[in-house]
Amino acid sequence: MNRLLTAALLWLCLVSPAWAQTARCEAEVRRAATTLGQIHRQWPLRPTGDRVEQGAQYVAARLGRYTAGSGRIWRVHIVRDSKLNAFSIGDGHIFLTEGMLRFVANEGELAAVIAHEFGHHLAGHFCTSARKRGFWGGLFGGSGEENATRSRVGALTAIVDPEKEREADRIATIVLDRAGYDPRHALELAMRMAHSGSAAHFQYRHRVEALQELLAGRPRASRAPADSQEFREMKRTLWQEEALR
Ligand SMILES: [Zn+2]
């Protein structure tokens, strides 16, 4: 009987949602649609279905299988920009720059970037501000917390709140684990970015320390899965374009 009970409890732990809020809120959907229109008018995006976009979308879809139940449809957009950045606008829309796709060393690092953006969605960060006074065009659903910093991404304002970044990282770790990617890729990427001099949104001051704490005691995965064909095609296309410049 005891063994049965333990098994049931374990099962409950395994299937219980790892994030507090999964549903989109009305304000999130509305704001994302407005911002998406703005971005499409103002930013140079890669066409849908090209190899670079497909490679990133493939990784998002692979991770997305492990967020089933959230009702989210994940959509990755690639910005023609050499800066290192990744951000979200809510309602499943994630933006990655070409600079970021060139920078990631392997598929696991790209998965870490995308899973972090999933984390912001799954934590409900895009709904939070709707409950607070006003919304001023933040990309991450920030709400003007004291510790948050703001930066410009084109005509939009990005908010980086260390507390929300940590929450996104915590959820990302769970999604990466489920999808078979080693969450330590997030730390490796953050460490390399810390030395790159870039000012990407998730490169907040103590991110490396926060990730080290989150991943403390976690053994390195014994065998890293090989990069997918889609990821390799994406990298090859970017290299070819770079060579032609
Ligand atoms: Zn973030």
Structural class: mainly alpha
Mean pLDDT over the residues = 80
What string gives the helices and strands in order?
HHHEEEHHHEEHHHH
- Name the strands of the widest sheet in spatial order: 1-3-2
- Low-pLDDT parts are 4-16, 130-146
Number of strands: 5
Shape: globular
Q: What's the Cα radius of gyration?
A: 18 Å
Distance between the termini: 69 Å
Residue share in helices?
A: 40-55%
Q: What is the total domain count?
A: 1
Number of helices: 10
Strand content: 5-15%
> Which small compounds were modeled alongside the protein?
zinc ion
Give a short account of the largest sheet.
3 strands, mixed
Oligomer: single chain
Plain-language structure description:
With 245 residues, the chain is mostly helical. The protein has one domain (20-216). It is built from ten helices and five strands, in the order αααβββαααββαααα. The chain has helices at 2-15, 26-42, 51-64, 98-103, 107-122, 125-131, 162-179, 184-194, 207-214, 229-244; strands at residues 75-79, 86-90, 93-97, 149-153, 156-160. The strands form two sheets. It has a three-stranded mixed beta sheet with strand order 1-3-2, with helices on both faces. β4 (149-153) and β5 form a beta hairpin. Residues 4-16 and 130-146 have low confidence and may be disordered. It binds zinc ion.
